[in-house]
């Protein structure tokens, strides 16, 4: 197991800027100690980035060249997502834009050598509440063309467990629903990304859900919270039971990376503090990886 972090460790800015350039984020992650990264494409849906423009391929080549110089590889990436997690869109143009940037994310992931591309499942409850079969069908309907493109380009797909807020059901928040969705593909290239913070919002003990998912877990989003808000803090800053959760993960024979998604830890910091914080995050992650191997 390697320690990794999402490029979004530096993406959120206190000074009001909406996006830290990818090349800057990658360099700063490397300076903090990280050599394995998760490339975040989620910014596509919230702001414009260098990869939003028509010359995106040239910029992707720059990222590849710089990453090779720095000795960085990309094990994961995160597809853009609809913030509502529901199969509805403000307009047909918004939906078309989503597909455009999703396909672009797949192609860039392939260029970067990404193994697992994380996607957010949709919840379909327009016709009937709590209809898991309808949600499975809709995720196929919506994602199958994207997944086909990904598999063709040697990129596998990991569906992420979602947050179930008190006032709304979310399909795939429960492990059994993720099993149902992933198993419907009958393809080992479709798996699960387990987000510990999301799990902590739903379960008193997420170890049992990790055991239920078993070998389906192929990627991680490592972050912590207090079970109330999706804070995306470092391990041990919240209430996730890391020792028990990591022991359960090890029992699944997990072979992927220990990948941070901890932008909440740095997002409100002045830029001058983030690099210090990132080095601290690297130290905490090294401890977690050692803990995993010692269990």
TrEMBL record:
One of the record's GO molecular function terms: isomerase activity
Alphabetical list of InterPro entries matching this protein: IolE/XylAMocC-like (IPR050312), Xyl_isomerase-like_sf (IPR036237), Xyl_isomerase-like_TIM-brl (IPR013022)
Keyword Isomerase recorded: yes
Keywords (A to Z) from UniProt: Isomerase
Residue runs in coiled coils: none
Presence of the UniProt keyword Isomerase in the record: yes
Chain ranges of the Xylose isomerase-like TIM barrel domain: 26-266
UniProt-listed PANTHER family: BLR5974 PROTEIN (PTHR12110:SF53), HYDROXYPYRUVATE ISOMERASE (PTHR12110)
Protein name: Xylose isomerase
